[in-house]
Design a protein that fits this description.
single chain, elongated, 12 helices, alpha/beta, Rossmann fold, 2 domains, seven-stranded mixed β-sheet
């Protein structure tokens, strides 16, 4: 939809919405608001939104990214907001968007996102609250594992730069860990660009990054819980050799000809999958 004819483009500036609704960012909720619509539209474009796509957004706050998504098109948007103040502040956007926006006052950690939209047309785009980013990502990986490619076409999220780097890190990298293995087992991960603290209200103390995940086809039947347990054992004491951290599975390491003197960070994602297959 052309922004010129979209009622969303006629709404008051986001800073006015924040001020008029006394919507000061709350540290306990991990809130940092994006007010630059050029930036929020750029974020939305990373998801390559199609007319049939249903977008799910977590923590819209005053609606900066929500506006960007709505202006970029798509079939509809479900925005889940925990903060009651933000829900009130979003009412003018809700009215302008009409049936394009489904605003939910709820806890994203308790929501089953697969009830929104349809398989093969569902995408997540969100500026994630820092304090719940990793639990949400793990939850969505569970969805992808269970439903494979039907759960989400893609996940485009803003997180702390270090979290994005951990998600995309490869073996031998100091940031490579449990999250790296879980993400890359199920998805292709690509860091799109960084966002400086100055882009936010209030500015956080760290740089953020946009990371784009696309589910990939698997050729294994490994249980999610098995990979979780295995990586927890391996990375729980990451400076120790795997002959100690994975001691119950030494016979598997020997069978796969994996050097037991290596550390967790030296094993590739494929290594962990192969070990998990034998554990199963």
């Amino acid at each position: 939809m052309n922004a010129e004819f979209n009622p969303v483009s006629t709404l008051p500036p986001l800073k006015d919405i924040i001020r008029n609704n006394d919507l000061r960012a709350t540290k306990s909720l991990g809130q940092n608001f994006l007010c630059d619509l050029n930036l929020t539209r750029k974020i939305a474009r990373q998801a390559d939104i199609k007319p049939s796509d249903h977008i799910i957004e977590i923590g819209p706050g005053p609606g900066g990214l929500t506006r960007g998504i709505l202006l970029e098109g798509g079939h509809s948007v479900t925005a889940i907001e925990f903060d009651e103040r933000a829900v009130r502040a979003l009412q003018s956007l809700n009215e302008a968007a009409g049936d394009k926006l489904n605003l939910i006052h709820g806890d994203a950690l308790k929501e089953n996102l697969l009830r929104f939209g349809e398989n093969d047309h569902r995408k997540i785009i969100a500026n994630l609250p820092y304090n719940i980013a990793t639990p949400l990502i793990i939850q969505w990986l569970h969805d992808i594992h269970k439903n494979e490619e039907g759960a989400y076409q893609s996940i485009t999220i803003m997180v702390q730069k270090e979290v994005a780097q951990r998600m995309s890190a490869t073996s031998h990298d100091k940031l490579y860990g449990r999250l790296s293995v879980l993400v890359q087992w199920l998805c292709n991960a690509h860091i799109c660009f960084d966002v400086p603290p100055s882009a936010f209200v209030p500015p956080p103390k760290v740089t953020s990054s946009i990371i784009h995940l696309t589910p990939k086809k698997r050729n294994d039947d490994v249980a999610f819980s098995c990979i979780e347990k295995l990586t927890e054992m391996a990375f729980g004491q990451r400076r120790k050799m795997i002959r100690q951290t994975l001691k119950p599975h030494l016979s598997i390491l020997n069978e796969l000809e994996i050097d037991e003197k290596l550390r967790a960070e030296n094993l590739s994602v494929a290594d962990y999958i192969n070990i998990a297959k034998h554990m199963s």
